[in-house]
Design brief:
3 domains, 382 residues, alpha/beta, 8 strands, 25% strand, flat, Double Stranded RNA Binding Domain
Length: 382
């Protein structure tokens, strides 16, 4: 029994080692020398004398090194303008292998890793220089299409070397020139009956447009006061206006129906001889149900106008509605003729509907969804 337990314990210890070794060996057999080196190094950090991992590392690292050096030689002679980015990627892989092996005492007894930090730094600088030069060339053309090309190059530079020359400044200039500028006028609400505020709807629209990156990162939206302050000359103007709306239109539907119990129930007693006996029969109740619906609905008109030509680029209407309901009931007769749901409704009372402002907000919610969906599809192409 003890031998069986000891054998089980030994398997529990060796199984993770065997599985890890198999993974490194499998990567090696598949020709993925980088992965096999990394797996072997991880294993040897925990188990420095692990024979299979030592063997894999001994064979895999020289092969990985030769493979990458051959890639570097080929890429250096490539005519690809952005070959330095491909070279940088290769040097990053080599330096990752160097760091992993160098941080493993058992590993450096088997192989001598080679670092390429200077080469990586040079490749990074050259890659940024090429992108910076291309961006500058596109920016000098001076139109929106080429400014967008310039912006893409300056973005790459920023990712490679954040403080490269005056790249940040040129990135801002390119974005300004590349941007399609749209002024969004305040939402108008025409109502002679109610003093309704558009604040909720306006705030939702503003919030959506200020995160316009999800529409198109080159489309920028401005409020009128912001555009005046920054002396923005827009490409388009969006006008939004609520019209043809009703708030708080009340409809009441009342129904009365008589219900008879399904089963017989005790309805009283009678004397038979000298004994009082129960009397059974079906009972009825007259139920009056009331349903009050307060309807609110409206229409938002959206017009997109080209600022220079004053021509309408797009015009569309979006509808929305909200129905507030309240139900209650009363009855006369025997409650045993009614269901539990009907009795619960009889305990309900008539409620006051929300104020007009809240009803206005509620019917504007589906309008907001339809409006933003349209804006998203419309400006995706700009």
């Amino acid at each position: 029994m003890k031998r069986k337990l000891a054998a089980g314990y030994l398997v529990a210890i060796l199984l993770p080692i065997l599985l890890g070794c198999k993974s490194a060996e499998k990567s090696f057999k598949e020709g993925d020398f980088d992965d096999s080196v990394l797996r072997a190094a991880v294993k040897l950090k925990s188990y420095p004398t692990h024979a299979a991992s030592l063997d894999v590392l001994r064979q895999a690292y020289p092969l990985a090194l030769d493979q990458h050096l051959n890639e570097i030689e080929a890429k250096k002679h490539s005519e690809d303008l952005f070959r330095w980015e491909a070279l940088l990627e290769t040097y990053l892989k080599l330096n990752r292998l160097f760091k992993e092996i160098n941080s493993c005492e058992a590993c450096i007894t088997i192989v001598t890793p080679k670092g390429f930090e200077k080469e990586e730094k040079l490749a990074r600088h050259n890659a940024a220089s090429v992108r910076y030069k291309e961006g500058t060339n596109f920016l000098s053309i001076g139109d929106r299409t080429n400014a967008r090309q310039a912006y893409q190059h300056f973005e790459k530079v920023e990712a490679l070397i954040p403080d490269f020359n005056d790249n940040k400044k040129k990135l801002e200039i390119a974005y300004e020139l590349a941007s399609f500028k749209v002024i969004v006028e305040q939402v108008l609400v025409n109502s002679g009956k109610y003093q309704l505020s558009n604040a909720y709807f306006q705030e939702r629209v503003n919030e959506f447009l200020q995160t316009s990156g999800r529409l198109n990162k080159f489309v920028r939206f401005y409020m009128p006061e912001e555009a005046v302050k920054n002396r923005i000359r827009p490409d388009q103007v969006i006008s939004l206006q609520f019209d043809d709306f009703v708030v708080g239109q009340t409809m009441i539907v009342k129904t009365t129906e008589t219900f008879i119990s399904k089963d017989t129930v005790k309805t009283g007693e009678k004397v038979v001889g000298r004994t009082r006996v129960p009397v059974y029969g079906k009972v009825s109740a007259k139920l009056t149900e009331v349903r009050k619906t307060v309807l609110s609905a409206g229409l938002l008109n959206m017009r997109i106008t080209d600022f220079n030509t004053r021509q309408t680029a797009n015009e569309e209407k979006f509808n929305g509605e909200y129905n507030w309901t309240c139900e209650w009931a009363s009855f006369t007769g025997d409650e045993r003729a009614l269901t539990s749901a009907q009795l619960r409704k009889c305990k309900s009372q008539e409620l006051f509907p929300p104020p007009p402002q809240q009803l206005f907000i509620e019917f504007s919610k589906p309008i907001y969804e339809r409006l933003t969906s349209k804006l998203q599809s419309f400006y995706a192409k700009y």
